[in-house]
Amino acid sequence: MTLEERIRRRFRTALVKYGLTEDGDKILVGLSGGKDSLCLLELLAAQARIHKPAIRVEALHVRMENIHYETDTTWLQAFCNQLGVPLHIRTTRFDEAKAKEKGKPTCFLCSWMRRKELFNVAQELGCNKIALGHHQDDIIHTSLMNIFFQGHFATMPARLKLRKMPLTIIRPLCLEHEADIEALALEHHYEKQLKLCPYEHDSQRTTMRRLYEQMEQCNPEVRYSIWNALEREGKLIEEEVD
After folding, report:
1. How many Cβ atoms sit within 10 Å of the Cβ of residue 158?
2. Three-state DSSP class for 153?
3. Phi, psi of 235 (to 5 degrees)
4. Phi and psi, residue 129, nearest 5°
5. Distance CA 129, CA 116 (A)
6. What is the pLDDT of residues 14-44, one digit of tens each?
7. Residues with Cβ within 8 Å of residue 225, at least 6 apart in sequence
């Protein structure tokens, strides 16, 4: 089985297993320009050409004025044009001084402002779902972060229905291995992001990535053990509650 066949098989399995797409869905893809979101858009664009379930796909790239973590928008536009996917580009910012006053981590606030723009644009466009490019490694790392730093067993679910707005967040790459996506990015000549963020190497997520690598050295099957635990506890399909 080729790399692309393996990725597409896991993608289709995720769509069915976690009920990520339904007939009539209009999906907004959060397109950061990194390898994960580019891979996600390629897969969903191909899925949209299949008649059942009938879905429509659009993409949003959010630029952050005070954090240089972006992709050349000319290249992104050409990429989306080739896939036949409409691309929307928005710019936002956050108040770093206010974040420090409230004790909020910069990475958290930056991520939240990008997510807020996604929510707003999705509703403007009449989308009922937002697709994010988190892969299986991301989801596992998040579960470890929650155990170590929050004291509870939770993660980013493959499907999350929001309570306060008519949107569902889906993560169709939830079964993909990061190493496979990295290899695909090389094969498909994805343009690399411009990453000049001063905070990207100073995070709990970086610590968890290193810890997880050590865990894999002890047990090469550890990803499946953690994933099975998340499934058994119902952490991969969730609905927001009050």
Report:
1. 27
2. coil
3. -90, -5
4. -140, 150
5. 14
6. 999 999 999 999 999 999 999 999 999 999 9
7. 219
